[in-house]
Amino acid sequence: MKKIISLILFCIIIFFIFHSFFPVREIIGGDFPYFYQEQLQEFSFFPALWIANQRLGTPIISPWIDTYVHVIIFIFVRILHVPWNVIQTIFFFLFAIFLSIISSFYLYKELSNKGSLLSSLIYTCNTYFLLIFGGGQAGVFLAYAITPLVLTGFIKIGNALKENKTQNSKLLQLSIIAGLFFAIQVLFDIRIAYVTVVAVGLYVLLFLLPRMNKKKQISNILFLIFYTFIIPFGIAILFHAFWLLSLLLYKQSPLDTLSSAYSSQETVKFFSFATFSQAFSLLHPNWPENIFGKIYFMRPEFLIMPILAYSSLLFVKNSKLNSSKIIFFALLGLAGTFLAKGTNEPFGQVYIWLFKHVPGFIMFRDPTKWYVLVALAYSILIPFTLLTIFEHVRKFSIKSKIFNIQNVLLLFLISYFFYLIHPALQGKLTGTFQQKSVPHEYKQLKNFLLSEQKFSRTLWIPQYQRFGFYTQQHPEISADQLFNISTTAGIIKKLQAPFTEKLLQESAIQYVVVPYDSEGEIFLDDRKYSEKKYKEILFRIKKIPWLTQVKQFGKIIVFQVKHPKEHFWIEGSSQKSFINIISASPTKYVLKIIHGQPGQKIIFSEIYNQYWKAAIVHERAQMISQAYHQRFNSFLLTQKGNYILEISYIPQNMVVAGQILQIVTGFFLVGFWTIFTRKNSRTKEKMLQ
Amino acid sequence: MKIQDILFFLILIFFFYKKNLKWIVGSGLFCLIFSIPLFAKWIFFTAERLTWYAAGFFLLAICLHIIANDNLKKKQK
User: Fold this and answer.
1) ipTM of the assembly?
2) How far apart are CA A186 and CA A139, in angstroms?
3) Does residue B2 form part of some domain?
4) d(CA A287, CA A130)
5) Residue A105 forms part of a structural domain
6) Most exposed: A118, A187, A347, A370, by fewest CB within 10 Å?
7) Do B25 and A277 touch (CB under 8 A)?
8) Residue B18, in any domain of the structure
9) Are residues A576 and A497 in the same domain?
10) Considering only CB atoms, which residues of chain B are within 8 Å of chain A?
11) Owning domain of residue B65
12) pLDDT in tens, B44-55
């Protein structure tokens, strides 16, 4: 009965916090992208490793969450015709809540049978999770949600290894499960997967390795490495071979697509928003408004969290639970706190050193990702402390079922917890928690762009707006990305420069759009929307002589660039030579060259990348892309006449090889599972006989 | 390094010598409890430092726990 009441209470709390996601609605806000129906129809089953969108085309080096988005959209929206708003609510938001509850429940269950719901509540309703959830960072919150499950998988391997009698097949089964969970986590967000690996590493180094049987130390260490690292990581690598192969074979660094501002020391210092006390209290520095860069003062009421968490250290010796696990989670909490504060004091230089020297640490320019460790630790330590206190209090309690000290304590704790997250209960959280709709002006712009048949790009000044429409036929590009300038004044200056018109024409940019900043994210003055800034930009753009205003949809102003080039064009083309596009996908174009002349250059107006190649159909010779004006791809024609030319992005071929590896791995695992289950049932039957 | 930092390190060394886990954890908890009114009154410098000291005490307690556990296991063997 008690369990049912707890479960009902738990469900009510969860519903109150996340009530804005019921019933299903269009989710708009934060980093969660908005897709029009026309855009959804372009989604393939797997993401391409090159997209025409952003920065005159972008190589996709590591398509983690994109893969999940593509698979979900392809199956449910394109094939089964389920509305996108239903899919996004179920497969992203509700799934994350469910996963977070279940996975933290199982992690705590690994330690104790009591207190699992409290653990789930702390893990799912803390300020960090609520803000990444509201911020629409789908990959991060899904990876966060599965973290306890991944850790449980590895802890189970550790437990099995400690019991020397465990069969190898059982160990292998546990390793495979851990590997599958880890592969899913990598699919969501590799940074959170990295955080989990740090936690696993800490567990193995401090709590598993020293407890190995000293007599067979070397063989035990080899066993440990094999089952804890080689098998799980091997499975994860095989499942992600479809992008890892191209990354390894073509040695494209993910950093190549990012500016130096991403990996500089100053950026890390800027992004170190949380102070030590905030990280220690599991208080997100942007709580509750979630305005980027707006950091709040420390709220003393949150300090009860570490007090409760680290009080567990007082009860470790007398505990029925495995004391080493409590110690492990306490250490994890401290490590998470130290890393989540980034370059802030104390010992801020350590984070910079780690960022510069430790492989993979470069992914953590935003140190708040390390909050995951704090959340994990507190979701274990706080319930443990509270249950121990309850046990102590029980001795002195009145023997009434309702009016006893335990229930008073419980009521006090729930009230305190409600007080901490009261903005969530009052519906004051922003981003995806709020209901929004697409302004009709953007729908009009979409229809206008769709009416254009031939390929053309749309330049957004100063930057793309979340409701802006783009397709493969009409990619978007932000002015700050095209000119590599972050200030509006710099962008205007660049637009006024003499060669900019030619650059825009060669980039196939037909329309220049000044957006309507409906969400107050672009024209900002002291983090608030500034009409003055919008008007100032508009005024300056209107003065550019080669731009003609062609349309206006409310506050969206559309200018036209005269005579833009096409996606493919021939340099110095005579009237006789021209190109027909037979088929087009983001990574492969089939062109018909009419009256081609040797020495002519075909310009492909996407950013130069050495892995674009051209080949005449049915001929062996291949042409590798040459940089044109240090910006675009170009191919030198060697043949005269009419022929078909295939232009493709080479790393995409590795996706197919990777997919084959994925399928083989899947079959192998299913086969192993079947054999193992049969063997197990036979053993059980024999034992029964 | 401030005078309170030196005091903290002296206490930490004393606790390390005494190896009384309850005292160490208790000191950490005391630092946290004491920092609450300071944060409430916006005395951030001292309050923030107290949270660092609390973490220091907890870290020492964890290290001593690990060492004690290892020693216990060695003795059992």
Assistant:
1) 0.94
2) 9
3) no
4) 9
5) yes
6) A347
7) no
8) yes
9) no
10) 21-22, 25-26, 28-29, 32-33, 35-37, 39-40, 42, 44, 47-48, 51-52, 54-55, 58-59, 61-62, 65-66, 69-70, 73, 77
11) 11-72
12) 899 999 999 999
Q: Residue A325: what residue type?
A: K
Q: How many domains does chain A have?
A: 3
Tell whether A467 and A331 lie within a shared domain.
no
Nearest CB partner across the interface for B59, out of A211, A299, A334: A334
Compare CB distances from A346 to B47, B52, B73 and report the shortest one's residue: B52
CB–CB contact A346 B69 (8 Å): no
| Domain limit, last residue, from A388, A404, A433 | A433
Chain A CB contacts of B75 below 8 Å = none
Residue B6 lies in a domain: no
User: Are A300 and B48 a contacting pair at CB < 8 A?
Assistant: no
Do A337 and A272 contact (CB within 8 A), yes or no? no
A406 or A275, greater pLDDT: A275
Predicted confidence at residue A637, as pLDDT, reads 85
The shortest CB-CB distance from B70 to any of A210, A277, A280 is to A210
Number of domains within chain B: 1
Measured CA to CA, the distance from residue A386 to residue A311 in angstroms comes to 9
Question: Are residues A617 and A646 in contact, defined by beta-carbon separation less than 8 angstroms?
Answer: yes
Given this model, what pLDDT does residue A164 score?
66
Chain A to chain B, count of Cβ pairs less than 8 Å apart? 83
**Three-state SS for A603?**
strand
Find which of A50-54, A105-109, A389-393, A483-487 is predicted with most confidence, using mean pLDDT. A105-109
Query: Is A210 close to B58, i.e. CB distance below 8 A?
Result: no
Residue B72 pLDDT = 66
pTM score: 0.91
Q: Indicate whether B65 belongs to any domain.
A: yes
Residue after which a domain boundary falls, among A373, A399, A433: A433
The minimal CB distance from B25 to the residues A214, A314, A334 is found for A314
**Predicted confidence (pLDDT) at residue A318 exceeds the cutoff of 80:** no
What gap in Å lies between CA A324 and CA A203, rounded to an integer?
10
Tell whether A429 and A487 lie within a shared domain. Answer: no
CB contact under 8 A, A324 and B69: yes
Of the pLDDT bands very low, low, confident and very high (cuts 50, 70, 90), residue A368 is: very high
Alpha helices in A46-115 (DSSP H): 64-72, 84-88, 95-109
Residues A387 and A501 in one domain: no
Domain coverage including residue A637: 568-649
CA A247, A253, A258, A261: dihedral to nearest 10 degrees?
150
CA angle A477, A286, A514 (to 5 degrees): 25
pLDDT digits (tens, 9 = 90+) for A419-466: 999 999 888 888 999 888 899 999 999 999 999 888 999 999 999 999
Give yes or no for a contact between A189 and A165, defined as CB atoms under 8 angstroms apart: no
> Based on the domain organization, do A429 and A444 belong to the same domain?
no
Task: Give the pLDDT of residue A260.
Answer: 62
Determine the pLDDT at residue A246.
Answer: 86
